């Protein structure tokens, strides 16, 4: 009897199977620019969020945060959720998430400054904590950063394994005068993200949102 | 000193240096001609022999494999024919038990019917009316001479009247008797019909048995031919295996299609049970769980078919005693039934989840559900029925699987034989090519040193006539 027990104990780990330690879940953190005229674009952002909610699978994580004067703060997170592994529960969570976003879009106030770097730092922190296998940071902004005097943001950011996608990068009035400004702005962000170990893409065609996860 | 400078024998004239080198090389090659030829020939022979040896080994292996294939085919054929004969005997046994076991009863029924008919027949036989005794008296009276005696005439008239009335009475009685006999014969008809039917039934049974016996005869002839291990039998069995292989392969493909549909029915709801976010390797745990359920169903189907002795993939199950086998039938059927029920429930759940997801997508896309609603219970019930039926349908995979496994032994053997034959041919070809390559190399070698060879030939030609003349003079 003891012999059988020992055999079962030896075989148990094999019977149990090798658990897969690799995370297959996706984590999406979306930053919404609420500064100045960009607040008008929030309706578009809502459509993107709805697309993401329809695409993300049970077990994935998602958060939406606004970019304001000081974005390196949990207070700026509008909604965050790790969807349950059961599809029915995940669907309920998605409905709740959508409700929160709808409320935010209707009540959002414009901010005087745009702290994109702070938002990116906050998103990296969230995604690392969520333990997502694939990390996506979506920046819905014109990428023009305007910081409050005294805020320090000009330092390298650690973004290992993060896929950064800039969405709906609108051209400013000054960009029309000198388009080089627009290209420089985009190139600077790309250099900064890639220097931190992340990947960079720009998706301006909102009709082809499936390209967000193609990278 | 560089290598190029070393090659320049005549400084300042590379062409001349090159010519000198060529002459040196040609002379050296000419001097080394015989050993070089021998070396090339030896190398070619070694390669040729090596390839030939390899080819022979492969041919030997091919022959052994062909022999093994023949044995496998014959064994499979013997087993198959034995099963067929066994089945035929079972059928004969069933017919005998069903029809001929009631033969005593049948015989009694026939006997009773015959007795009844016989009795009726006896009763219906015509009894001749008793010979009238008074006919002689009448004749005697009638022959009396009529001498005008009125009394005699009166008596005769009276006798005549009495005779006529007697005649009428007798005739009526006779008719009555005949009618009664006819009625009896009429009553016999159903008995005759019943007897004809009974005999027809017996005839059919006997004909069926006769046909079975003929089938058994044919099978026995086939069996004997296989036992004699003739090439014809082996060829026929191989061809039969090939047909079986393709047919069973086709049916298995259909079964795989059914399994895929089954998988899609239960994969989504399984994520509700085991979670949609966990993975085993690169596969979702829900998908793996769904696959395992389907495979368990197939395994249960196999056990069921084995226990029913329809297939013979696991001899140990077939060899079990009947009690144990019956238990196994019930156990495997019960598990299959439970799994079918689970699948049906999962199919229902799938429908619910899909509807919920659809509603969510609509709300996300801000689209109101419009249009005429289709009866939602039809797909739900359809899916549930499909979920319940498919596991049982998958049970029958065991039959083509058995055919596929058995025929694949022969088919793979035939393919391996063909491969080995092709390999042997290629090796032989390579051996021959290497031999002729040796010849070619020898000729190319001679081509490089053709000037000294030409001179040698000239000298030999000059020498040869002189030698011949000397020889002639000597003779």
Describe what this molecule looks like in 3D.
The complex is a heterodimer of chains A (215) and B (475). Chain A is built from 6 helices and 6 strands; from the N terminus they run αβαββααββααβ. Chain A has 215 residues and is an alpha/beta fold. Chain A has one domain (32-213): Rossmann fold (3-Layer(aba) Sandwich), CATH 3.40.50. Chain A has a 6-stranded mixed beta sheet, with helices on both faces. In chain A, helix 2 packs antiparallel against helix 3 (87-107). Chain A starts with a helix and ends in a 12-residue tail after the last strand. By secondary structure, chain B is mainly alpha-helical. Chain B has helices spanning 3-7, 14-31, 33-98, 103-124, 134-142, 150-227, 231-274, 285-307, 315-318, 322-364, 377-395, 398-448, 450-474; strands at 279-280, 283-284. The chains are: A alpha/beta (215), B mainly alpha (475). The interface between A and B is medium-sized, with 22 and 20 residues.
Task: Give a quick summary of the entry.
The complex is a heterodimer of chains A (215) and B (475). With 215 residues, chain A is of the alpha/beta class.
Write the layout of secondary structure elements.
The complex is a heterodimer of chains A (215) and B (475).
Chain A: H1 2-16, E1 26-33, H2 42-55, E2 61-67, E3 77-82, H3 87-107, H4 116-130, E4 134-140, E5 162-167, H5 173-177, H6 179-195, E6 199-203
Parallel strand pairs in A: 1-2, 1-4, 4-5, 5-6
Antiparallel strand pairs in A: 2-3
Chain B: H1 3-7, H2 14-31, H3 33-98, H4 103-124, H5 134-142, H6 150-227, H7 231-274, E1 279-280, E2 283-284, H8 285-307, H9 315-318, H10 322-364, H11 377-395, H12 398-448, H13 450-474
Antiparallel strand pairs in B: 1-2
Helix pairs in contact in B: 3-6, 3-7, 3-12, 4-6, 7-8, 7-10, 7-11, 7-12, 8-10, 8-11, 10-11
């Amino acid at each position: 009897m003891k012999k059988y027990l020992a055999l079962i104990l030896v075989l148990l780990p094999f019977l149990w199977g090798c658990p897969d330690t690799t995370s297959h879940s996706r984590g999406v953190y979306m930053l919404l620019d609420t500064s100045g005229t960009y607040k008008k674009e929030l309706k578009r952002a809502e459509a993107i969020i709805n697309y993401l909610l329809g695409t993300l699978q049970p077990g994935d994580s998602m958060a939406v945060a606004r970019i304001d004067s000081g974005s390196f703060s949990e207070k700026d997170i509008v909604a965050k959720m790790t969807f349950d592994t059961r599809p029915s529960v995940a669907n309920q969570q998605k409905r709740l998430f959508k409700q929160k976003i709808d409320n935010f879009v209707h009540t959002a106030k414009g901010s005087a400054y745009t702290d994109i770097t702070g938002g990116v730092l906050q998103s990296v922190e969230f995604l690392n904590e969520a333990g997502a296998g694939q990390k996506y940071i979506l920046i819905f902004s014109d990428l023009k950063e305007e910081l409050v005097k005294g805020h320090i943001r000009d330092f390298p950011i650690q973004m290992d394994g993060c896929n950064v996608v800039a969405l709906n990068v609108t051209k400013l009035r000054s960009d029309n005068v000198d388009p080089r400004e627009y290209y420089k702005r985009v190139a600077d962000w790309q250099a900064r993200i890639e220097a931190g170990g992340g990947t960079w893409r720009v998706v301006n065609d909102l009709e082809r949102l499936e390209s967000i996860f193609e990278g | 000193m560089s290598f190029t400078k070393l090659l320049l024998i005549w400084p300042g004239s590379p062409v001349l240096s090159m010519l000198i080198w060529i002459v040196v090389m040609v002379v050296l090659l000419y001097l080394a001609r015989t050993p070089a030829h021998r070396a090339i020939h030896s190398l070619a022979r070694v390669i040729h022999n090596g390839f030939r040896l390899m080819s022979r080994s492969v041919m030997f292996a091919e022959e052994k494999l062909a022999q093994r294939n023949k044995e496998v085919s014959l064994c499979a054929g013997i087993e198959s024919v034995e099963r067929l004969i066994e089945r035929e005997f079972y059928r004969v046994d069933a017919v005998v038990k069903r029809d001929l076991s009631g033969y005593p009863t049948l015989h009694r029924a026939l006997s009773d019917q015959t007795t009844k008919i016989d009795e009726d027949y006896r009763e219906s036989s015509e009894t001749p009316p008793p010979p009238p005794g008074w006919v002689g008296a009448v004749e005697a009276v009638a022959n009396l001479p009529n001498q005008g005696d009125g009394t005699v005439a009166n008596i005769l008239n009276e006798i005549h009247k009495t005779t006529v009335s007697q005649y009428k009475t007798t005739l009526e009685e006779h008719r009555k008797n005949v009618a009664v006999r006819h009625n009896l014969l009429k009553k016999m008809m159903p008995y005759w019909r019943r007897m004809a039917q009974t005999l027809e039934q017996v005839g059919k049974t006997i004909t069926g048995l006769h046909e079975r016996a003929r089938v058994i005869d044919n099978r026995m002839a086939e069996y004997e031919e296989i036992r004699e291990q003739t090439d014809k039998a082996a060829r026929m069995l191989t061809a039969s295996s090939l047909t079986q292989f393709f047919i069973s392969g086709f049916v298995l493909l259909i079964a795989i299609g059914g399994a895929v549909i089954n998988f899609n029915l239960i994969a989504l709801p399984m994520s509700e049970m085991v979670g949609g976010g966990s993975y085993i390797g690169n596969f979702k745990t829900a998908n793996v769980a769904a696959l395992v359920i389907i495979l368990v169903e197939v395994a249960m189907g196999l056990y069921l078919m084995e226990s029913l002795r329809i297939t013979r993939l696991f001899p140990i199950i077939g060899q079990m005693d009947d009690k144990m086998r019956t238990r196994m039938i019930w156990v495997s059927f019960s598990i299959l039934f439970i799994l079918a029920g689970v699948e049906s429930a999962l199919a229902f759940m799938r429908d619910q989840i899909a509807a919920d997801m659809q509603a969510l997508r609509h709300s996300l896309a801000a689209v109101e559900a419009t249009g005429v609603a289709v009866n939602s219970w039809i797909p739900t019930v359809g899916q549930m029925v499909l979920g319940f039926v498919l596991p049982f349908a998958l049970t029958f995979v065991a039959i083509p699987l058995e055919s596929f496994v058995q025929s694949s032994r022969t088919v793979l053997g035939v393919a391996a034989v063909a491969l080995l034959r092709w390999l042997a041919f290629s090796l032989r070809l390579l051996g021959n090519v290497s031999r002729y390559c040796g010849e070619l190399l020898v000729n190319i070698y001679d081509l490089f040193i053709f000037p000294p060879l030409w001179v040698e030939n000239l000298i030999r030609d000059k020498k040869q006539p002189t030698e011949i003349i000397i020889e002639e003079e000597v003779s």
